[in-house]
Amino acid sequence: MGLTSASVGIKAVDLGLKIKKQNENDAVVAIAGNPNVGKSTLFNNLTGMNQHTGNWPGKTVANAQGYCKTSEHSYVLVDIPGTYSLMAHSAEEEVARNFICFGKPDATVVVCDATCLERNLNLVYQTIEISEKTLVCVNLLDEAKRKKISVDLKMLSDKLGVPVVGTTARRKRTLNDLLRELDSLIDGRTASIPKTVVYDSVVEDAISIAEPAISKAAGNSISARWLSLKLLDKDPSLIQEINNSLGFDIMSDPDVCEALKKASDYLTENGYYRSVLKDSIVASIVRTAEHTAKQTVKQADSGYNSMDRRIDRILTSRIFGYPVMLLMLALVFWITITGANYPSQLLSDLLFTGQQLLSDLFIKAGAPDWLHGALVLGVYRVLAWVVSVMLPPMAIFFPLFTLLEDVGYLPRVAYNLDKPFKKCKACGKQALSMCMGFGCNAAGVVGCRIIDSPRERLIAILTNNFVPCNGRFPAMITMISIFFVGSAGMLDSAVSALGLTIVILLGIAMTFIMSRLLSSTLLKGVPSSFTLELPPYRRPQIGKVIVRSVLDRTLFVLGRAAAVAAPAGLVIWLMANVTVADVSLLNHCAEFLDPFAKLIGMDGVILMAFILGFPANEIVVPIIIMAYMAQGSIIELDSIAQMRQLFTEHGWTWITAANVILFSLFHWPCSTTVLTIHKETGSLKWTAVSILLPTVTGVAVCFLFTQIARLLI
Fold this sequence. Notes:
By secondary structure, this protein is of the alpha/beta class. The chain contains 28 helices and ten strands.
């Protein structure tokens, strides 16, 4: 989801107008297309880059750039956001429209899905109105063949008046024809005379009235026909972009104003008000696309997607949709919990062996004890702990999440959750960013970019922390295992996963509640609609998914966590070892917090551990153990039984454990997430709200739970 600079190409450009060339002779080629047509896959295979791809709309939220060479030319390929139309209604569509219309690419490649060509042709016809050098790439021919659909590429090229080539983007060898056709198009060897849409006679007459004056004013920089149509449509945002591109206010030209007034009066006289004009334009494009598709696409079996629809009747049904989601969630957590145990222990042993080597090195060098303690027992030990606890679950969870995304299940999750989110006056796409939050809340916050409405995007950002990331799983699983599961033998991990799922359902419920609260108070507004395509189920690229998930998501998030965990280790060591009146600063702070902590069912040590765990939630339990055992650095106990004994000796009951779970679920975001929220919102105010909202919720929930539990006992 655009988490790293590497995963989004050379440079992500919000407006899509800045191009970084390796040399002046590079040809700039825009890669356009509807969402979910394999556009980013084609981009990756042409450039050798790793723009993250997924099986749901809205993946690319900025322009990714990469390089590609043939024997004749070198290209800068620009993977622009997936869009259904250049009549922009969202931030993604604006980026796509602005680049194609005003970015002045040397050519535009429009990628289409061979299995649903008619819908894709709407964008093709809009593109060839603007760009004469357009190449249509009919992708996913393998899926079309499987579904018994054939496309007459030669006839399609004749109908459009531009070159057409067929590909299967996953197979690099099928892209050779595309590159050869692109070379010919750039050199002018391929005749490209686009056959534009013919609109209603009234619209065509209005264009004829306005076009001469507009052509004279704009020159050859923008298609005068297209420009006439857009100026008659009177879209303020588009007119601003047109003026920026031309370098002057075209509406200030007296000849243009007079021509537009005549054309507008002519439309009004014939009943073509703005809404009618827009509907007429869209209807003409749709009719033309439908006519072209009927002539060029043959479908042998009308039930080609019957299997997908049968599966959807289960996965998106009112009866089975939600239970399947819950079972899938529990399964992912069970695999994550079970699979992470052994590699986590192995990694821990390896890293703590490194600690011993560092200690020996410091001793041989004659380093003072305080320096050894601060750097080795503080910085390195906390860093090693975070890596060993955080890396294995993320390395399992992110690939599992991406596989569900790649196979096409996550759009079904968004479809199921769209109605509940709409009742909260939020956006259904929030379901996708919420799911990403289970891996890392920082990743979930970045994922909120796919939400078009600023109000709804902000709601999704502020509530993402209510679903726990895997950094909070260790503390929750520990509490569940010690105080609620008991000895379940071989079923221990399954019962823990079930318990964790129940806790997470509480987090999801609170996400809905807080989304509704925000939309009714600080962020009032009407929920926007959005187009969500249910893509066909596809066989996931398992190897590629694993590699990219680990490199693009896991290591990136781990790196950001490690960057804040290292200085946190120094602070923790100092607080545990610097004393005032023979009492450590850690204990002084814990005693100060104790009265308040008792009100919410915990103690000062626990609350202090949460505060010191701000850089990384993984170290909360180790800090509690360190404080209780009066140690100078974080330590690990060998068994669950030892932890249970230590906690009960310090007054823990099941109520304490439950409050630790609740506060783990509802408290301030980690430092990485806070920094990400500030970067995404650009606001200190909303960053502060993102901290206060879950914290106040956590304090209130723990207080109420404690009082009720004490009354019932």
